[in-house]
């Protein structure tokens, strides 16, 4: 399975912190000779240590604006106290801390609050210069203002880059999730396609062979009984059985060939009316059952899928009459109107039980009906036997596809 790699981690925050630590170390190195001789050296070392701790904690304050404000205020106060206590020769170095704080203010805060903190740093620097030296030069004003804004811009750029990185990671996670779902759906679709193909193959094999083999078995049983007394009639029945088996083999070949075609449907060699009439005639001769056939004078043009479903339903119904109904007569009727075509097969046999509705042949007919938007009903007939009714819709688009 494909896995999308994450974009490289953004080390800019850590680089900024490393620069902050180096700046802190540089200021401490400059001020150290003056601090050692100062009476306030203990307090100054403590303040430098607190500033260093603040730099370490800052990296964990992302997406916590309130704590960022407290951090900047804390560092501002410490820097101001250090600048006030340190000997005058090293006072200028402490303002370097504000370069780092300017970048940090724009890194984790929105534009306006970050700029306000930079303004605060500029004002504190100017005010400290006036208090220490009594004046501040225009060059000093420009250099400190420009330096703080430059570092603030750098922090804002890092903030935008971090936001873009996070957005990319979210998109990457969504893409990976969508990819995994697509693979799962593809696997499910493949499994469904295989299952559907198996069901379709099973339906065609069952419908193509079941009826012919049932008729052949009936003829074989009859021929076996007649061999001692009526060998000529027995031979005729065996010849009819041979014909049935040859037709079954032909239908099997036709079905296998059709399964390789795009629509996967075998075609009737005759019209639906002729195919059903031949089916009934052959079935009567083979089984001795009386089949009452009622077909309309003319059928509307039907798609091949409808014709095949109706023919298979007639085949399966007559096969079930022979195998399960113990009937003497059966009725096969085909009716049509502007909206649907209906095949009804009933008999005067013993009816059906609860298990009968779950036989494979009927399951296959239900699947065919559902695929074509129709329905299959199995109920008791008026003659006391069973009745099967298959209804298929006829739409203008379906007729146009014929």
UniProtKB/TrEMBL annotation:
Catalytic activity: ATP + protein L-histidine = ADP + protein N-phospho-L-histidine
Histidine kinase domain residues: 208-396
EC number: 2.7.13.3
Pfam family membership, one: HATPase_c
UniProt GO MF annotations: ATP binding; phosphorelay sensor kinase activity; protein dimerization activity
UniProt keyword terms in alphabetical order: ATP-binding, Coiled coil, Kinase, Membrane, Nucleotide-binding, Phosphoprotein, Transferase, Transmembrane, Transmembrane helix
Entry-linked InterPro entries: HATPase_C_sf (IPR036890), HATPase_dom (IPR003594), His_kinase_dom (IPR005467), Sensor_HK_TwoCompSys (IPR050482), Sig_transdc_His_kin_sub3_dim/P (IPR011712), Sig_transdc_His_kinase_ChrS (IPR017205)
Coiled coil segments of this chain: 158-195
Transmembrane portions of the chain: 12-31, 43-61, 67-90, 97-127, 133-158
Keyword check for Membrane: yes
EC category: transferase
Name of the protein in its database record: histidine kinase
Protein species of origin: hydrothermal vent metagenome
């Amino acid at each position: 399975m494909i896995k999308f790699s994450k974009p490289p981690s953004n080390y800019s925050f850590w680089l900024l912190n490393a620069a902050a630590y180096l700046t802190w170390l540089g200021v401490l190195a400059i001020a150290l000779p003056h601090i050692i001789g100062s009476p306030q050296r203990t307090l100054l070392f403590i303040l430098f240590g607190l500033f260093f701790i603040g730099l370490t904690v800052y990296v964990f304050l992302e997406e916590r604006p309130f704590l960022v404000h407290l951090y900047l205020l804390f560092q501002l106060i410490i820097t101001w106290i250090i600048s006030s206590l340190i000997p005058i020769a090293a006072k200028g170095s402490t303002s370097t801390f504000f370069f780092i704080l300017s970048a940090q203010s724009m890194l984790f805060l929105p534009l306006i609050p970050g700029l306000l903190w930079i303004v605060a740093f500029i004002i504190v620097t100017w005010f400290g210069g006036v208090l220490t030296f009594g004046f501040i030069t225009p060059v000093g004003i420009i250099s400190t203002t420009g330096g703080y804004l430059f570092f603030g811009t750098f922090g804002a750029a890092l903030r935008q880059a971090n936001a873009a990185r996070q957005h990319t990671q979210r998109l990457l996670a969504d893409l990976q999730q969508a990819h995994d779902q697509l693979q799962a759906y593809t696997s499910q679709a493949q499994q469904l396609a295989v299952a559907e193909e198996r069901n379709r193959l099973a339906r065609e094999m069952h419908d193509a062979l079941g009826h012919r083999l049932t008729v052949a078995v009936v003829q074989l049983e009859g021929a076996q009984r007649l061999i001692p007394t009526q060998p000529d009639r027995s031979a005729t029945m065996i010849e009819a059985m041979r014909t049935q088996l040859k037709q079954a083999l032909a239908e099997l070949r036709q079905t296998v060939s059709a399964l390789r075609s795009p629509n996967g449907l075998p075609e009737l060699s005759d019209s639906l009316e002729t195919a059903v009439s031949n089916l009934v005639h052959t079935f009567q001769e083979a089984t001795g059952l009386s089949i009452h056939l009622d077909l309309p004078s003319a059928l509307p043009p039907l798609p091949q899928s409808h014709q095949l479903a109706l023919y298979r339903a007639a085949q399966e119904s007559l096969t079930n009459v022979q195998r399960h109904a113990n009937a003497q007569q059966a009725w096969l009727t085909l009716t049509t109107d502007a909206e649907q075509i209906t095949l009804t097969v009933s008999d005067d046999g013993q009816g059906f039980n609860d298990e009968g509705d779950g036989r494979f042949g009927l399951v296959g007919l239900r699947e065919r009906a559902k695929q074509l938007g129709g329905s299959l009903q199995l109920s008791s007939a008026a003659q006391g036997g069973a009745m099967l009714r298959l209804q298929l819709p006829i739409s203008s688009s379906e007729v146009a596809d014929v």
